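User: Okay, second chain of the day. Same drill as before: sequence in, C-alpha cells out.
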Amino acid sequence: MVARGAIPPQADITSPTWWTPLGTTGSVNIAGSVAAPRAHSYTYTLEFAPGVQPPRWPLSDTWTAFGGGSGTTAKTFSVPLSLVQVRAAIAAAPPVYTPLDDPTSSSLPEKDAFRVRVVVKDDRTDTGDAIEQRQYFSSADPTLLQGWPKELSTDGAGSPTFADINGDGHPELIIATSDGWVHAFEPNGFEAPGWPVHTGRLPIPTTGNNAYTRGEVSGVRYNAVLLGSPTVADLNGDGWPEISVTDYAGFLYVWNHDGTPVHGFPVQVNRAYSHVPGCETNIGPNCDEFVAHPVRDHINVVNGAFAAQPAAGKIDPSYPGLDLVAGAEDGHVYAWHADGTPVPGWPVMLRDPSKVQSVDPVSHRITFKPNANAAYGRQVLAGVSLGDVNGDGIPEVAVNVDEEYDDPANWSLRDPTLAVLGAVAPPGNTRVYLLQHDGTNHPGTSAVPNLGTNAYVPGWPVAIGMIQTELLPDVGSGSDGAPVFATMGGKPVIGTASIGSPPYLLNANGTSFYGNGPDGKYL
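Assistant: Same drill. C-alpha cells below.
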C-alpha cells in the first residue's frame, strides 16, 4: 500500500475520551478531524451502533448516521449526538451476551455500551476507507458525586486509598498512576491544595534528531507508579500523615500532607544488584536483558524497579518514627527510616539457601548448586506485610517473590483436584519468606556467604506449590499478592498462595497450620 502510494485518508475522534459514561438524556458533542491529503476530495460520515460489538451471526450490525460532510482540505468537526436516540437503540438491540456466556461478568457490565465511528472515503479508487471507532456507555447513575468521574488520561494499575491528609474532616481519595502523578482528590473532585505531585523524570533524550528534540512528543514524562495503594502514615510523629509511593525506576518518594517533599527522599535501590557497570540507562550492546552478562540471565532476572508500594511500621525500635519497607525487582527487600536513612541490616536478599552455591559480593548474582532445578525469577512484585509473630512487640516482614523451582509441589496429593492438575503440567514450587526485623544484623551467620540468611526467621523460606512454573513472565512466576497475618486458635499465622495453588496457612515456624498429609506434604 505504501509502495503503491495508495495510502487511505485520515480519520480521528478526539472527544469524548475512550469509555466515557455519557448519561441517557440530552446530547454530547463528538469531536475529531478528517483529511485526505493524497486525494482531491473526500466525504465523511459519523455513525453510532448499539452494543460492545456486533451481534452474533446471522444477525448483522446496524449503524445510524448522525452527521457528516465533505471537503478538499483537512477539517475538524464537532457534531451533537442524541443520547436519547442512543439509549433507544441500545434498548431495541439484541443482547450481545447473556449472564451465562458473558466472558467478563454475569452482571453484564457492557450492557450499556455503544460505539461511535467516523468513516472517511476519498475520491481515489485505489485506497480503502479510513475508520476511527470508539466505545462509550449510556447509563444513568444517580449516586455519582458532582465533579466525578475523573479523566486522568492514564491507567490506574494501583488502587486508591482514602485518608484525611489535610485535616478538613473529609477523607481525600489518593491515587498514583502509571504516568507518575500522585493525586489527592477532595469529595468535590478538586485536588487538595499542593496536589498533584509527581515522581522523577524519565531519562528521555534531549539531544540528537528524534521526536522529543523536534518537539513532536513532549520530553517531560515521569517514572511510572504501578501496583498497590499509596502508603499514608504519620512517619515522623508530627500528627500529620505523610504519603509514600515507589516507582518503576527504583525510587521511593515521601511527601508531606501539603504535597511538599520530605527531606531525605527520594531514596533508591542499589543499582549494582541489577545493572552491569555502564548500563544504568539500559543502553548498550551488552545491556539487553536477554544477553548473558555478569548480573542477569534466565534465572537471575533482576530489574532496578519497585512494582508495589511500601509498608509502614516500626521495625527499628531504636530510631524515631516509623520505617518504610518495600520489595524490589532486584530480589531484595529494602527498609528506610522516616528521614530517608537506611535501616541497619537492610536490604535483605531473597533466595532459598538450599539451592544456592555462591553469591557475587557486588552484583549478588547467584550461582546455583547442581540439580537446583531453578526456573525464571527473582523479582518481588507484590507488597510486603508486617506483623509480630514472636510476641516481642516488633514486627517481622513477610514477603512473596518470583522464585521458582521445578521440584515436586509442596501440597498433599490427598486432594484429588491437585493430583489431576499435576497430570496436566509438571508442577513446581515458589517461596515465601519471613524476615527478622533487624535483617542481616540479626545474630547468626549466613549459611551462604553474601546471601544473609541470618535475616530469615528459622523455618523459612517455605515452599509454596505452583500448578506450573514459568507460566507467564513476571506475573506468572511466583505470587502476585502479599502474605497476610492473622490469629488462629490464639496463635499467629501467615496466609499465602502462588499464582496457581490452593491457599496455605503457615505457623510462625513455617510449618503448615493444618499439618501434613500422608505423603508428608502440606495440607
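The chain has three domains: 10-137, 145-268, 311-523.

User: Thanks, on to the next one.
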